[in-house]
Amino acid sequence: MTKGAGQPMYKTIGLFAHVDAGKTTLAEQLLFHTGTIKQRGRVDHRDAYLDNHEIEKARGITVFADQAILPYKQSVLQVIDTPGHVDFSPEMERAIQVLDGAVVILSAVEGVQGHTETVWQLLRKHGVPTFLFINKMDRTGADKSRVLEEIRRQLTPDVYDCTDSRLLSGGADPRLEEFAAERDERYLEAYLSGSYSSGDWMNAIGELLNSGRLFPLFSGSALQDEGVQEMLEGIDQLLKPDHAAQESEAFAGRVYKIRHDENGVRVTYLKVLSGRLRIRDEIAYNLDLGIERVEEERTGDGERTPASTVIEKITHIRLVSGHKAKTVDEAAAGQLVAVTGLSEAAAGQGLGALRDRSNYDMVPALTAKVFYDQALAVKDVLRAFRLLEAEDQTLKVLWEEQLQEIHIHVMGVIQLEVLEQLAKERFGMTLSFGQPEILYKETIASTVRGYGHFEPLRHYAEVHLKLEPGERGSGITFVNACHVEDLAVGTQNLIRHHLYEREHHGLLTGSPLTDVRITLLTGRAHNKHTHGGDFREAVYRALRQGLEKADNVLLEPYYDFRLRVGLDEMGRVLSDIQQAHGTFEPPVTTEGYVLLEGRVPVATFLDYPTEFAALTHGKGSLRLTFGGYDVCHNAEEVIARRCYDKNADPMYTSASIFCAKGAGFSVPWEEAERMMHIEKET
Questions:
Q1: In this predicted model, what pLDDT tens digit does every residue of 153-197 receive, in sequence order?
Q2: What is the DSSP annotation of 83-108?
Q3: Which residue, of 86, 478, 543, 650, is most buried by count of CB atoms within 10 Å of its CB?
Q4: What is the DSSP letter of 75?
């Protein structure tokens, strides 16, 4: 791509690494080499440019995905320093979807670690061109050849060591040319004929990088400033996102982060993917896409019901670099900006011409209770957590009305400790949390019909639903099979809204309901007596009545694991997995090690990484990634422990309300079906 004079090439680069691989130190060197800072900071000195939150300084780890703008030659690098601790993986994953490229940093001593593999798989899933940097070459025990072999074996065989390549300085690199030729027939012909210049080969390497067929590797020491300049030059010359082609198109953007400023104003961080964004532009986006899955088979008029569209005006645009921000009037394709004016757009949201919403793999498998000083008003505590939830949707703040308790979803204990500090710093609240517990869910294993009727005096609504088991991980899916002659389209949409306005409780433990396909069959309203809220009552009762008749199943979260262990420890590890109710594929033996992949319940494996590290003396490798939900291995035990009384849940009832002689009366779910006013479908 050829840029016009004075037009910078924007490149969004993410930095990724396992904890303590030297990621933030490398970021400091990049900032220094591009003239963004005049003095390098250090994590241990608590003065790193991108770790500017007090929490990060105190802990010496990256918690928030902060960014910096680094001008370099004809490029403007927008570097995002992502968290390396697994508890903050959702923050890292949200950043991935706006990247033009990534740098994965590995320690020359520790090599490929569990989080390294997790990051690598996410980058491959999203097709992000990736560079690798083997850091800490100055450390005792550093072994580049061993780490390079681990990369080829555990990550990709398509890695090429560019540390001493002459290609980046305008010379020839026959080995790199041969490496490229092996990956594309076009380049093979050029290699054999000798028809390519060094510039042609540079473009060829860039194309292979962009298509995920070649991964340049550099090595050195970020602390000693060795190898950093070479990698920076590689990023500048090889990575060339084509944002200029999108300049003339309509505006499209992707939200990747939500924050609130010191005045509590919501700030939306987004990447401009095409067109231009200007102050006072009106931006449209779909509010509910991604929150639920909808399969509209037919509505009354035969058309698909549109998603709820929001149109809001941009009031401020800022370029953010570390703790500094610069106000601008407009932003071009490729730029990262922070804007105000979007009140409901969430991370992953597409804006403008882009109307989809991203789904994320990294989700919590734990839940914890919030303890707060009784002198605090619960509404204030809830308001604070709602702000935090807007910034991190995975928190899923829940208010248990019956118990007067607040519960949140979390990744781990370290995240809870950080939340305690955040609550103190931002809201002046002293909070604590209960011991994290497994977040269970419920589904059904049979197809049933649920009927709900709500008819106290001067109210009327009736709803018929079909409930079917959904695919694992599908959530709640809505299908509309109701005809307009039975219910107006607006009422059908209202029923759909009520099904998604909150999580529904299962009957076994009161855990969230998931993986259910709900079809609206029919319903009835009254021209005079149907009022607001009537269909909410009828829908909830229909859903609950259907669950009463279904085969209910308790689900628990699972890890997908991949581990590497020595032959001597293999027997013990296999035994541990079996005792943890896990399953695994046949072991693969290679060069004195055993590679093993499988699935295991989070509940039985949550603390195993520590035990595994002790067993293998730190030489084994264990990668755990969230593998979704499946049937609970000890359902009866969990159900007994939870002691959930489905008949005492104030949020739900499966009984219906009918009216006779001017008064409403309750009919138990077993008897309600025969009293419905609409004839049941067979």
A1: 889 999 999 998 888 888 888 999 999 999 999 899 888 988 898
A2: --SGGGHHHHHHHHTT-SEEEEEEET
A3: 543
A4: E
